[in-house]
Amino acid sequence: MDLNMFGTPMARLIYDRDFSGYNDPSAVQGFIVYVQIAINSFNKTHSSDYKLVEMVRVFRSLPIAYNYSLYFVFTAKLDDADDDAKSLQAVLRFATEEIHVLLVDFVDPLAIPRLAI
């Protein structure tokens, strides 16, 4: 499934925990390392120790001139806390041999749009 803007494909859905046909857990195994890069960046910036709990959604942008982005929604919780996991979103950009963390922040799970077909 593609995300379109003005009729042009912009990103491809890789995984969605809540969407049948895109909820195979094996689809996200190769992306966990990138989510960990995002979490490490967040932890360093906020002097925290969040750990990945669950992947919720993964999109991959279509490549443009050897660059592409990954868009993640995932849950994480503090390593030593009994609190519920929090939802976060992250955007990583992959340029020639470089990974840039563009965004990692909390997101309201109710604000995450659901896919509609």
Q: Short summary of the structure?
A:
With 117 residues, this protein is mainly β.
Give an account of the 3D structure.
By secondary structure, the protein is mainly β. The protein is 13% helix and 47% strand. It is globular and about 45 Å long. The model has no long low-confidence stretch (mean pLDDT 85).
Structural class: mainly beta
Q: Which strand order spans the largest sheet, edge to edge or round the barrel?
A: 1-2-3-4-5-6
- SS element count, helices: 1
Principal-axes shape call:
globular
Considering DSSP H and I runs of 4 or more, what fraction of the residues is helical?
A: 10-25%
Taking the alpha carbons of the first and last residues, their distance comes to 9 Å
By DSSP, the count of extended strands is 6
Strand content: over 45%
* Radius of gyration, in angstroms, nearest whole number: 14 Å
Largest sheet: 6 strands, antiparallel
Order of helices and strands: EEHEEEE
Average pLDDT number: 85
Q: What are the low-pLDDT stretches, counting only 5+ consecutive residues below 50? A: none
Topology, element by element:
Layout: E1 2-5, E2 8-16, H1 32-46, E3 50-61, E4 68-78, E5 86-95, E6 98-106
Antiparallel strand pairs: 1-2, 2-3, 3-4, 4-5, 5-6
